[in-house]
Structures are given as structure tokens and as C-alpha cells.
Amino acid sequence: MRERSAAERIRDFQEVPLGYTPEQAIEEAKRCIQCKNPKCVGGCPVEIDITGFLKFVAEGDFASAAEKIKETNALPAICGRVCPQEDQCEKECILGVKGEPVAIGSLERFVADWERESSPRPSTRYARSGHPSPSKMERGMNFDDSRKKGVRIAVVGSGPAGLTCAGDLARLGYQVTIFESLHVTGGVLTYGIPEFRLPKAIVNLEVEYVKSLGVEIKTDMLVGNVYTIEELLKEYKAVFIGSGAGLPKFMNIPGENLDGVYSANEYLFRVNMMKAWQFPEYLTPVKIGKRVAVVGGGNVAMDSARVSLRLGAEEVTILYRRTHDEMPARKEEIERAVEEGIVFKILTLPIKYHANNEGWVSEAECIQMELGEPDSSGRRRPVEIPNSNFKIPIDTVIVAIGNSPNPLVPHRTPNLKTEKWGGVIVTAAGLTSIPGVYAGGDIVRGAATVISAMGDGKVAAKAIHSFLGPTK
Amino acid sequence: MFKIIKKEKLNESVTRLIVEAPHIARAARPGNFVVVIPAENAERIPLTIADADKERGTISIIFQIVGATTRVLDSLKVGDEIAHLLGPLGVPSHIAKYGTVVVIGGGVGIAEIYPAVKALKSAGNKVIAIIGARCKDLLIFEKELRTESSELKITTDDGTCGRKGFVSDELKDLIASGEKIDLVIAVGPVPMMKVCCDVTKAHNIRTVVSLNPLILDATGMCGICRVTVGGKTKFACVEGPEFDGHEVDFKELTERLKAYKDVEKRADEHVCRLLSNG
Ligand SMILES: Cc1cc2nc3c(=O)[nH]c(=O)nc-3n(C[C@H](O)[C@H](O)[C@H](O)COP(=O)(O)OP(=O)(O)OC[C@H]3O[C@@H](n4cnc5c(N)ncnc54)[C@H](O)[C@@H]3O)c2cc1C
Ligand SMILES: Cc1cc2nc3c(=O)[nH]c(=O)nc-3n(C[C@H](O)[C@H](O)[C@H](O)COP(=O)(O)OP(=O)(O)OC[C@H]3O[C@@H](n4cnc5c(N)ncnc54)[C@H](O)[C@@H]3O)c2cc1C
Ligand code: SF4
Ligand code: SF4
Ligand code: FES
What CATH number does the domain located at A250-401 have? Predict the structure, then answer.
């Protein structure tokens, strides 16, 4: 796929890949050998009919390709951009055994973008493609429309899990209200993933689409504090909790509370959500130093590092305790980070931050690691090399080592059962320990992916429908 | 939503707004706060819910104009709408029958103690309120607190009203007088809270403080509000803002409050320019 050069793109927040031309897309889709028993589909958490949509692309029928994708995935423009394809659909593609797998994600993105650009208004766009017409989900259910009228359902959180669940339920005819605690919708899609990876215009369009289905979104509403789940159940027949991850993890090492040490969430929230890069027109500041250290090796770490570069940092270093091979970030983004000049210090673990006279962080003291035996996740465990301490001069630290599920709703809902680490416990259908209350996404899985959050939202919508629908 | 019903200048730098927010008024408890975004381009700032009227569906907030966002908030007029208001937030104050409770408010903190004083009094406590400010003109809520508390003591730095000195002096004397104190609550600037804690620690009197760290999302997501209490990191927006004062690392809190001082000044100058250009 065409990309903007590293030198050009680090000066702004615009998207990095430019996407396929129609010719390129057709050519790439033609590489698919249309397996009888396509492995790729099994790798997609929402089971897109990949063979089907690729066939349409190869024929140049992009409208039908879009329709095909949307039978199971309402947010293709987003998934095509942020799915970890190399661990999902493309990992399973048969062509990947000997050579390059088909670029399924990029093609999905192309189709979604083509559709958006050729029909800019969400309502007509989806009406034309009959979004989805009718979906697999609806076809499987006979449901008398008149019974759905006035059946209200509450959704907590407007991230991918909440939006998907709300959208599916609205299409089934329910009256859905989303409660969102922030002043802006979209969850991590808005406050976390930066513009150059996921343009906010695309996220907004998807939110507008969900609204056009009749979903009401109430922002500035913290469920748990404003209304408890118990109170919601008095007004709504079912509740879906999609409150996502919160609570940034820290390493609990000395100096972590010094000025200049951010959690990635704080840092990205200031930039993406509060538009700190437009300070002082926007009043929320962010302070980015000359030398930035980012701790971690996931998507969040890559995003923080690349944002820092775009905000004018001179040197950005990723500190990661394992090696490149173990980094959980999308491969593409690691490659782009390298191209953009991010320094990778692997097998490096910070153990202490030192301050200057003004109490601002000035040095990261690190210890060198080596790889030992594999741990429970199958990755080789990093072990410290004794007496290998060294210091790197820095003036900003961004800690990106993960988030725990947001504890607020569980705290205020005594009967809601959670795992020790905070995840809400659900059945395969997304049902929690409280009848009528479902959950999905990061609040259940811990920090996971956009597509798995969407998958959970779908499963829960279906379960809510069979809980409320046919029998009552 | 969030229409300003009433606006009142309590003194030259402190304003009270009564704002329409029925869902917040309904759920608000003493000790809760709200996040206010006065205009779309402004910051998210935390302000204590100074009063809530469930019937009218309004809350009141009282704030001191110290920087850009409080200045923008103060530029709004009756009938204007606040862009965003989120609440109630934080863990409410623990209201119970303790016996004798001394509630101390400094500066704009005086407004913040008012709901607690009222609630503690109706829970059957003897409530001694100590309030302090730099000078007489900056004292607020004197009349209200006089009616609501069992006893009111006033200090000013310059002696223009009440005793010349600090609230902590009054606290020391109260302890020395042999008054049996079961709980102290202190709300105000960090140095004031710290001194009060030093005083009570020597006498082993339980002391609750309401911390005012920097706040961003206020829903437990960003971690900027972290404070060290008893050697552990706590997120003040969801686990506080009230903590055991004897366990708080005030030095760290002071340092963390300075993080944006220099750039905040630029924001304030920007807002001043905009407001003076009308
Ligand atoms: C910087 C970053 C980069 C990432 N990159 C990728 C990537 O490239 N690919 C990928 O697949 N995944 C990525 N992820 C992970 C992915 O974004 C998440 O797994 C996904 O967003 C989870 O969706 P969700 O709907 O469960 O939660 P969220 O997106 O977190 O949404 C939850 C929403 O609920 C709201 N909320 C919380 N509590 C309450 C409450 N009490 N009342 C009302 N509302 C509430 C929150 O404000 C939020 O809007 C990334 C995450 C981050 C932080
Ligand atoms: C839970 C909580 C409740 C609060 N309740 C009230 C209240 O009821 N009334 C009220 O007037 N204020 C209250 N505050 C403080 C108030 O939030 C700040 O004054 C406000 O955020 C300043 O915003 P600004 O943009 O106008 O000023 P800024 O430009 O952000 O700051 C101006 C100056 O004030 C300092 N400052 C900023 N935030 C704070 C803070 N939290 N504490 C101390 N100094 C700070 C800055 O370092 C700077 O020097 C509360 C704070 C918290 C955390
Ligand atoms: S949604 Fe994600 S996993 Fe599924 S086909 Fe698209 S890119 Fe692959
Ligand atoms: S596995 Fe690869 S080649 Fe086979 S159908 Fe899927 S995308 Fe095409
Ligand atoms: S203000 Fe963000 S976690 Fe408390």
C-alpha cells in the first residue's frame, strides 16, 4: 500500500497509509485463490465472509463487497485500520504459508473508504447497501416488530463494544440509550488511538450512523454514580456494560510520581481528546520534552512514541523488557515507528526515575535484561542481568504497560461478579452474574482489541434479543 | 442542559453559580464533586458540589478565579449554558455520629465544608467550624455556617475579622482547652491541610482532608490525580478526594500541583486577551 514518507508524516497528524487505488485493490484481491474451506474466516473474530468480499473486489464490484462485509461487521473502516490482522485473518491465510498472505485488512479498509467517499451521507450510504440487508443475525430470528416497540435497553459506554451492541439492538427495533461518561463518544477510538492511525472523521461517521438508527447517546453520564445498574434496570429491560479499560498500570518503582511522568492514557487523552496540541486555543496543556522515554511494547506504547515525535520531541526511545519478536503491537506500526526514527532499547527495564532540582524527571535508571525460560504465555521470560544498571537522560516518561478493567461500575454494583484482576465475569453469551445485565469488551477481557470488543457487543445483542424477544 | 440559573459574586475572586442539572442534584452527596467544562475548548476542572437542591434540580458550585478555565467559567452569564458538567464524582464524605467534629475550611475551602457541616450536624454531632481567609473581604459563608454549626470560629491573616492568625492556631487552642475532639475535617490549600494534620497527629486525633490534585477525566482512567497515601498510590478522583490526613504525602502533592504552572500562565493570558477583546 502507498504510504507517506516518514520525513513528511512526522510533521503532522494526518494518516500514514494512503490506501490502495482501485487497480491495486483489484490486483491484490485477485491473489486470493478462493479456498473452498477458507482458513482466513476462522481467524476473524466476527467471521466476515472474506472469500465473498474478496471475489467482489477482484471483479471491481466494490459496492457488493461493502455489503458483504457489513453483513457481519458494521465498522469496516475502523477494523481495516486497527485490527492486528497478522494475528487474525491474515495469519490463517493459506498463501501466508509460503509467501505473503492476502492483504485482507487493507482491502477491507479500501472497500469501506471507497463506499464512504462515493456516498458521503451515512443514512443514504447504509440505506443503499441495506445495512445489513437483512443481517445474518436477523435472518436467524423471527421477531414480531410490534413487540419490540417501547422496549428500552441501556448501554454503558460508547466504545466499540457499546456502539456495536447498541447498533445491533437498534436494528432489531429496540429503543437503545447509550450512557457515556466522557463529553465525547467513541471510547478508545477517540481518546486513545491517534488521528494518524484512525481519523476521527471516520469514528464520528460511525457514531452518526448508530445515532441514525435511533440510538440516543447521553454524554457526561457516569453510570454507577449518576444511576446505579440497579436503578437502570428499573427503567430498562436489559443493560449492556461496555465500560472498557481504565486504571492505568504503573510499575510502582521510585520516582514514578515525579512531574514529567505520564501514564499513556493521560498523555493520549490530553492530546487526542482535549486537543492539547492546539494549546492555548484549547486550554488543556501537555508538556513534551526533548527526550522522551516510552515504557512498553504494545500499540499504546507505539502511539505514545509517535505522538511525541509529532509534538516536537527530538529523541523518542522505547524501553521494552523483551525483544522485538515479543512486542504485542501491530507489526505494521512497529515498522512505521522504526522508519520514523523511534529508538528501540530492547531488553531494558526501568527501575527508578531520578529528578532534577525542580522535581522534574531527568533520568531513567534501567537494568539490562536477557531472555530466560518461556512463561505461561509461551513468551520467553525476561530476567535481569545483575549489576547491569545504566542511566539515560530524559525529560518525559510515558508509562504504557497496560490498563486494568475500569473498576467504577463493578465497585458500585455489589452483585456483579468479577475476576481477581478486575474483569467482569460473563457467560459465553455475555451474561453477567446479574439477570438482564450483559457485558463485553475490555471490561471483560482486560486490554484487548477493537474487533473483539465489537464481537462481544454482537454476541450480547443477540443474547439480549433472545432473552427479551421471542419468548416475551 | 446545564443552564446557569443564578450567578453571585461572593467576593472579588469567588463566584457562586447555581446550575440546572437535575440528575446530578438527585444523586449528589456531601463530599462529591463535579467536572466542569465551561466551553468546548476549555479544560475539565473539578469543583465541589457546594449545595444540591433535589426539588429544583439544581446544584451550586463556588469557585475561585485562579486561571484560564475558572476565568472562562466566570465569564458566563445567567441564562448561558455550561458546555459539559459531569457528576456526582468521588466517594461521598462518611457522615455518622462521631461526637464532636471540628470542620476547618480555608479560603474557597470554606464553601466546600458547608455541605459536610450541615450533614454532620443533622447526624447529631457537635460541629465546631473554624474558617479562615487572608482578610475580611475574602471570608465567605460566615452567615450560613453560623446557623448550621454549633460554634463558629474565624481567623484572618491580617486580623480584619475574627482572630489574627491561622485556622491551625484556633485548632491548637481548642485542643489545649480540653475539648474532646473525635474527628477533624480540613479542607483548603495544601499547606493549611498539612499544618492541621501536624497539629492533630501530635494528639492522635483522626483527621480527614479533601485533596485537590490535578484532575483530567475524573473517572479513574488517566492517573493524573494519583496521590500517595500510607505509601500506596491512590487515584483521588475515584478513591477520594477525602483521605486520612496523617497518611498523605503532602510534599509529593505540592510538587505534582506545580507541573503545569508555567504553561497555565500562557493559557490564562490567552483567555484574558480573548475576554478583553469581547
Ligand atoms: C492507545 C491505544 C491504542 C490501541 N490500538 C489498538 C489497535 O491498533 N488495534 C486494536 O484492535 N485495539 C487497539 N487498542 C485496544 C482497543 O482500543 C480496545 O480494546 C477497545 O477500544 C475496547 O473497546 P471497549 O468498547 O470495550 O472499551 P473502550 O473503547 O474503552 O470504551 C469504553 C467507554 O466507556 C466509557 N465508560 C467507562 N466507564 C463508564 C461509566 N461508568 N459510565 C458511562 N460510560 C463509561 C468510557 O468513557 C469509554 O468511552 C488500543 C488501545 C489504546 C488505548
Ligand atoms: C476534588 C476537587 C474539588 C475542588 N473544589 C473546588 C471548589 O469547590 N472551588 C474552587 O475554587 N476550587 C476547587 N478545586 C480546585 C480547582 O479545581 C482549581 O482551582 C481549578 O482547576 C483551576 O483551574 P484553572 O484553569 O482556572 O486554573 P489553572 O490555570 O489550572 O491553575 C491556576 C493556578 O492554580 C493552581 N491549581 C490548579 N489546580 C489546582 C488545584 N486542584 N488545587 C490547587 N491549586 C491548583 C495551578 O498550579 C496554578 O498555579 C477543587 C479541586 C479538586 C481536585
Ligand atoms: S475484521 Fe479484522 S480480523 Fe476480520 S477480516 Fe477484517 S481485518 Fe481481518
Ligand atoms: S485463506 Fe487466503 S487465499 Fe484462501 S480464501 Fe482466505 S484470503 Fe483467500
Ligand atoms: S483524574 Fe484521571 S484518573 Fe483521576
Answer: 3.50.50.60
